[in-house]
Automatic annotation (TrEMBL):
Example of a GO biological process term: DNA recombination
PROSITE patterns assigned to the protein according to its UniProt record, in alphabetical order: HELICASE_ATP_BIND_1, HELICASE_CTER
Keyword NADP: no
Entry function: Plays a critical role in recombination and DNA repair. Helps process Holliday junction intermediates to mature products by catalyzing branch migration. Has replication fork regression activity, unwinds stalled or blocked replication forks to make a HJ that can be resolved. Has a DNA unwinding activity characteristic of a DNA helicase with 3'-5' polarity.
Any Pfam family matching the protein: RecG_wedge
Catalytic reactions on record: Couples ATP hydrolysis with the unwinding of duplex DNA by translocating in the 3'-5' direction; ATP + H2O = ADP + phosphate + H(+)
Domain Helicase C-terminal: 469-615
Source organism of this protein record: Methylotenera mobilis (strain JLW8 / ATCC BAA-1282 / DSM 17540)
Protein name as catalogued: ATP-dependent DNA helicase RecG
Length: 680
């Protein structure tokens, strides 16, 4: 791969500036694609200008002055044979005053607006024009850039790169692209950096031209190839093989007061089969809120324990970790299986006791938070790591837990945030995915209502009635302390107001800044039914399971993401009582907030909600991508390019098998700037 330092035409300052964009070689420069384009291929007469449209005008400066009223501005008038146009600059330098001297001939480009003296352009781009100045023959690209690197410098640097024909070779067999009617790599680069003026600007900026599609396919294919290579590499690593459980799982199932759904049985068999293999399982178990993932994870743990190995279950919050611990205790204590509990807030004595039982192998199952992957934690024989809400952990945290076992332990990741199919196909292509796609019987459907904050009195009355009838309720607030910028209701204030409003009710308060022991005490009171109303922040988003809670009020619902609203709503409807979730909103709703609330109102299906969330927010936030170790797609779009994703997925394994050297060249081109994928 040719480095920029190897090409004489690139100066040291230019190389230094390009490095700020993460560009160090010709491939990175060629794939630094335009954000948008401007049409400087023809000159428009002043009389033909249209309001709101961008245009290029050429003429002579007939007037220029620095005006100080109503505010400081550089104002010039440019004249051609058909009329005059005002140019206005609110921020300017002495050099611009010189460029706009009366008598200078300029070519200006900008959006036409209505001004006091007729048409005007504010901050247009200006070029001095001589007799030999020609009009551009292609659309002018506008690139993402950094301070110190002008558009002109970038265009020049990319122009030099486009002359290096050897850098634009095909990496993969031409037949692959012919089957998909996609143009060559070289033609695509030239067409995107220097598009012909007849190409639709809208199609270019929507990235729907054949040349954009070619590069989107290449990017998706590189992602698939990289993921499949990781998948194959993991299968070459050895892991403990566990025989199928003969006693513990059947003993557990007999003791349960409910039967597994067919979906739970199906995914339990998939996991059981994985654990019998000699390579580490890497399975993502996803299921909607309340679909019963924990019991499936418990069955996997028992298969491991019966074979003489230890299991670690890691959750992102103490509330969720403790929920798992109590559930596992109730299921496994009767089977005489010792469970250890490990969090950052334990006393030294309790922690030391737990650490000793983990190190000597007495503790067969260890449940905890981030504390599980600390250096002091040593397992005697870790065979399975279960990670709940895996997207909340950083890539290094998940890796640190996996490194606690020798040989490498099996890994089961769980997520209650359903992952849209396109996201699963692209960013999780290196994992096996199991889906629990049905809810246990006896769950009541949740009725969702969207209510303006102006009707708060009605809602308070509704809460009073529900609690006095023997049910329990949540009141969720988005912040703990008052923020002047956001002016949101706070948990502390709401708690005080609720105590005034409902003197006859027992009310609890839980938020993220409380000590873990305080949080646990409040949650225990609520779970036991001693507290009727729980005022909480979004700390209760996952893992809280109180079947008697049938009403939830979410303040400022318009401020929250779709998956968060869906998770919160899933805290009710866990018993047989009819459940309601009320979304309180402030009167001025943005279009995005309106779209979010509409989705959550119309659907209880986590997958449909996740798909809508992907459209509204994009993949980055759904993945927790800053932590995931996966480079984001820069060109392809999972919604727009789903057909290309399907084609890339279909081609990946065949290419890895038949064209290994070509695959390496393709990955070298597309992944060199993103770095190797580190998916754990």
């Amino acid at each position: 791969m040719t480095q920029l330092t190897q090409i004489k035409a690139y100066t040291k300052p230019m190389i230094a500036n390009l490095a700020k964009l993460g560009i160090s070689n010709l491939q990175g420069l060629l794939l630094h694609l335009p954000l948008r384009y401007i049409d400087e291929t023809h000159v428009t007469a002043v009389r033909d200008l249209r309001m709101g449209e961008s245009a290029q005008v050429e003429g002579e400066i007939v007037h220029a002055e620095v005006s100080y009223k109503p505010r400081k501005a550089l104002i010039a008038r440019l004249e051609d044979a058909s009329g005059q146009l005002t140019l206005r600059f609110l921020h300017f330098y002495p050099s611009q005053i010189n460029a706009l001297k009366v008598g200078n001939t300029l070519r200006v480009y900008g959006e036409v607006r209505s001004g006091f003296f007729g048409y005007e352009m504010v901050h247009p781009t200006c070029k001095a024009v001589g007799e030999k100045t020609i009009v551009a023959e292609t659309l002018t690209p506008v690139y993402p850039t950094v301070a110190g690197l002008s558009q002109a410098s970038l265009r020049k640097a990319i122009g030099i790169a486009l002359q290096q024909q050897g850098e634009m070779h095909e990496t993969l067999p031409a037949a692959l692209y012919a089957d998909l009617n996609l143009p060559s790599f070289a033609a695509s680069l030239v067409a995107l950096h220097h598009p012909h003026p007849e190409v639709s600007l809208r199609a270019l900026e929507n990235k729907s031209t054949a040349h954009w599609r070619r590069l989107a396919f290449d990017e998706l294919l590189a992602q698939q190839l990289s993921m499949r290579k990781h998948y194959a590499r993991r299968r070459s690593v050895s892991a403990p093989q566990f025989k199928r459980s003969k006693q513990l799982i059947s003993a557990l199932l007999k003791s349960l007061p409910f039967a597994l759904t067919s979906a739970q049985q199906k995914v339990a068999l998939e996991i059981e089969h994985d654990l019998t293999q000699a390579h580490p399982m890497q399975r993502l178990l996803q299921g909607d809120v309340g679909s019963g993932k924990t019991i499936v994870a418990c069955m996997a743990a028992l298969q491991c324990v019966e074979n003489g190995w230890q299991v670690a279950l890691m959750a992102p919050t103490e509330i969720l970790a403790e929920q798992h611990y109590r559930k596992m205790l109730s299921w496994l204590q009767p089977l005489d299986i010792k469970i250890a509990w490990l969090t950052g807030s334990q006393s030294k004595k309790d922690r030391d006791t737990a650490l000793a039982s983990i190190a000597n192998g007495e503790a067969k199952l260890v449940v905890g938070t981030h504390a599980l992957f600390q250096e002091a934690v040593r397992f005697k024989s870790l065979g399975l790591a279960i990670i709940d809400e895996q997207h909340r952990f950083g890539v290094h945290q998940r890796l640190a837990l996996r490194q606690k076992g020798q040989p490498e332990p099996h890994q089961l990741m769980m997520s209650a945030t359903p992952i849209p199919r396109t996201l699963s196909m692209s960013y999780y292509a290196d994992l096996d995915v199991s889906v629990i796609d049905e809810l246990p019987p006896g769950r009541s459907p949740i009725v969702t209502k969207i209510v303006s904050d102006a009707r708060r009195e009605e809602i308070l009355q509704r809460v009073r009635e529900a609690c006095l009838q023997g049910n329990q309720a949540y009141w969720v607030c988005p912040l703990i302390e008052e923020s002047e910028a956001l002016q949101l209701a706070t948990a502390n204030d709401t708690y005080a107001l609720m105590q005034e409003e409902f003197p006859e009710l027992r009310i609890g308060l839980v938020h993220g800044r409380m000590k873990p022991s305080e949080k646990q005490a409040v949650m225990a009171e609520f779970s036991a039914g001693h507290t009727q109303l729980l005022v909480a922040t979004t700390v209760i988003e996952v893992g809280v399971d109180v079947p008697n809670a049938s009403l939830m009020v979410i303040e400022h619902a318009e401020r929250m993401g779709l998956s968060q609203l869906h998770q919160l709503r899933g805290r009710v409807g866990r018993g047989a009582a009819k459940s309601t979730c009320i979304l309180l909103y402030q009167n001025k709703l943005s279009e995005t907030a309106r779209a979010r609330l509409k989705v959550i109102y119309e659907s209880n299906d986590g997958f449909a909600i996740a798909q809508a969330d992907l459209q509204i927010r994009g993949p980055g936030e759904l993945l927790g991508v800053r932590q995931s170790g996966v480079p984001m797609l820069k060109i392809a779009d999972l919604e727009r390019d789903v057909d290309l994703l399907e084609a890339a997925k279909a081609a990946a394994d065949k290419l890895l098998q038949s064209y290994p050297a070509e695959v390496e060249r393709h990955l070298d081109r597309w992944m060199s700037t993103a770095g190797e994928l580190v998916k754990v």
